[in-house]
Specification:
Strand 7 and strand 8 form a beta hairpin. The protein is mainly beta. It has three helices and 22 strands. The strands form five sheets. Strands 6-10-9-8-7 form a five-stranded mixed β-sheet, with no helix packed on it. Strands 15, 16, 17, 18 and 19 form a five-stranded antiparallel β-sheet that branches. Strands 1-22-21-20 form a four-stranded antiparallel β-sheet.
C-alpha cells in the first residue's frame, strides 16, 4: 500500500516499465528504455512532434500533440494509442470552431495541455493574441472543438489547468512573459467561476537559486491530486554558454490553497542526459506536459518533450517521488505565502 494516496480514477492499463536494476542516478524518475516514443517526421507535413499532452479515453489513450509543420508553423494534432506508447496521428490539424460552429483557427498553436474536468476535456495552448498568449478550447467527444474566451492578454505562456475545481472555481497556472524567448518567469495561479472571467491572481513560485532553475520556471503537467497535496511536475531553466537548459522539477502545493507551496524539491527530477534530450532542433530540453496515474498501484507515467524534436516517457511511483521531494525540499517565504500583495 502506498503511504501517499493518488486521488482519481483507476487506470490499470497505464504504460509502465520498472526501474532498471543498473540505474545509478539516485533520482526518483527513470526513462523508458525505448525512448523516444515519437520520432521525427511522424505524420505527413509534420517534421517534429514534442511538448504534447495525453489522457485516458474509452479504454485507450488520446492526445493533443504539438506538430511542427515542415513550414515551421506549429499547430495541434490529435493522436490515438491503444497502449500510450505507440501512436498514430490524424493527418489534419484539430479543427477549432467558435461558439457558433464556424471555423476559428489560431494563427499558430503550440505546447498544448489536455485536461479533463468533470465531463469536459479542455485543450490549452500558447498562440498569437496580438502577442504570445493563451488559447483554450473544449470538447466532449474529440470531434467538435469549441474555442472559448482567451483567459489573459499578452504576454503569457505555459497555462495548465487543475483537473478539478478548488473551492468552486477553476484553477489555472500560467507564466507571464514578454514578446520574446522570455529570459525570466515565475508561476502564477488564476481562478475563474466559469472559464471565461479570470481573476484572484496569486503568485505561486519564483525561479530559485539552484542552478537548474535560476532563470525561469513554468508549469508542466496538470497537477496530480494526492493525500499530501497537489503534486506538480514543472520545468526549470538555466542559461549556459551554449543556451538554455530545461529540466523537470517537482513541488507539492496546498490542496485547498494551491498558491501555497508545501514542498519544493531543490534538485531536478530529470535533466537532459540522453542523446534525444541533448541533441535536436533545440538541444538540452526536458519539458513535461502530461502525466498518467493509477491510484490503485501508485504508478505515474510522465510525457515530456525532448530537445524540441521528440516525445519521451518517464516513470515513477507516488511514494518514491513524494518522499524524494519532501526529503530534498527547500522553500522560501515567497513559496509558502498565499501570493497576494
Amino acid at each position: 500500500m502506498s503511504k501517499t494516496t493518488i486521488i482519481g480514477t483507476s487506470l490499470p492499463n497505464i504504460p509502465w516499465q520498472d526501474r532498471p536494476a543498473d540505474d545509478r542516478t539516485g533520482l526518483p524518475l527513470w526513462r523508458y528504455s525505448e525512448n523516444p516514443i515519437i520520432e521525427r517526421n511522424p505524420a505527413p507535413g509534420v517534421a517534429r512532434i514534442f511538448n504534447s499532452a495525453v489522457v485516458p479515453y474509452e479504454g485507450a489513450f488520446i492526445g493533443a500533440f504539438r506538430g511542427e509543420q515542415t513550414n515551421g508553423i506549429p499547430f495541434i494534432y490529435l493522436g490515438h494509442s491503444s497502449d500510450g506508447i505507440h501512436w498514430t496521428f490524424d493527418p489534419d490539424k484539430i479543427p477549432f470552431v467558435d461558439e457558433n460552429g464556424n471555423p476559428f483557427m489560431p494563427k499558430y498553436a503550440y505546447d498544448p495541455r489536455l485536461v479533463k474536468i468533470e465531463d469536459t476535456y479542455y485543450i490549452i495552448w500558447c498562440q498569437d493574441f496580438y502577442g504570445a498568449s493563451i488559447g483554450i478550447a473544449k470538447t466532449t467527444d474529440f470531434k467538435t472543438y469549441t474555442r472559448i474566451e482567451n483567459p489573459f492578454v499578452p504576454f503569457n505562456r505555459n497555462a495548465v489547468l487543475f483537473p478539478r475545481k478548488v473551492n468552486g472555481n477553476f484553477m489555472l497556472l500560467s507564466r507571464p512573459s514578454d514578446s520574446g524567448h522570455t529570459p525570466f518567469g515565475d508561476i502564477f495561479l488564476s481562478q475563474s467561476p466559469d472559464m471565461e472571467f479570470w481573476g484572484h491572481h496569486r503568485h505561486v513560485m519564483s525561479k530559485a537559486d539552484e542552478w537548474w532553475e535560476n532563470v525561469k520556471i513554468g508549469g508542466g503537467a496538470a497537477p496530480i491530486e494526492t493525500s499530501e497535496g497537489w503534486l506538480l511536475f514543472y520545468h526549470g531553466v538555466t542559461n549556459t554558454c551554449n543556451g538554455f537548459v530545461y529540466s523537470i522539477g517537482g513541488a507539492i502545493l496546498d490542496i485547498d490553497c494551491p498558491s501555497k507551496v508545501r514542498y519544493r524539491c531543490s534538485t531536478f527530477l530529470l535533466t537532459p542526459q540522453e542523446w534525444y534530450e541533448e541533441r535536436g532542433f533545440v538541444p538540452n530540453v526536458c519539458f513535461p506536459c502530461a502525466t498518467l496515474q493509477d491510484p490503485d498501484s501508485g504508478k505515474i507515467a510522465i510525457y515530456y518533450g525532448c530537445a524540441d524534436t521528440y516525445v519521451g516517457l518517464a516513470f515513477t511511483d507516488v511514494d518514491t517521488v513524494v518522499d524524494y521531494i519532501k526529503a530534498n525540499s527547500r522553500v522560501t517565504q515567497t513559496d509558502t505565502e498565499e501570493g497576494r500583495r
